[in-house]
Amino acid sequence: QVQLVESGGGLMQPGGSLRLSCTTSGFNLDYYAVGWFRQAPGKEREGVSCISAGDLNTYYADSVKGRFTISRDNAKNTVYLQMNRLESEDPAVYYCARGPKGGYFCDYDDMDYWGKGTLVTVST
Fold it and tell me: 61: part of which helix (H) or strand (E)?
């Protein structure tokens, strides 16, 4: 049974850092693209970052480029999203999702399994 479980969300301060984890099971992580998406209240879900099968390619949305880093540890069946220099636009529910086997990109419509999300909120 394919599962993806996000963790690591919480209260953020602007300028601070958080690391999100996506723990997977039921499939060979190295063979699949995995993406991070986020959805803020009143907004559509948007792609944040993607790591291709075999770690051949990474992708970042312009809004997070230079601040976020995606990586994976196949031995731990986990994909990470390191988020640095957090900004006021970053709070959202963050989701990880599995992309195509052997995939290079993480197009929303091609993602077949999704986690339930982890909430990142901002302190005031």
Answer: none
Q: Detail the DSSP E strand segments found in the chain.
A: 3-7, 10-12, 18-25, 32-39, 46-51, 58-60, 68-73, 78-83, 92-101, 113-114, 118-122
Query: What is the pLDDT at residue 103?
Result: 84
Tokens describing residue 96: 């990880």
Q: Residue 31 phi/psi, 5° resolution?
A: -85, -5
18-25 sheet: strands from edge to edge: 3-7, 18-25, 78-83, 68-73
- d(Cα 19, Cα 70) in Å, to the nearest integer? 10
pLDDT tens-place string over residues 29-68:
999 999 999 999 999 999 999 999 887 899 999 999 999 9
96 has a pLDDT exceeding 90: yes
Q: Looking at this protein, which amino acid is placed at residue 4? A: L
Q: What is the CA radius of gyration of the chain?
A: 13
Q: What is the mean pLDDT of the chain?
A: 94
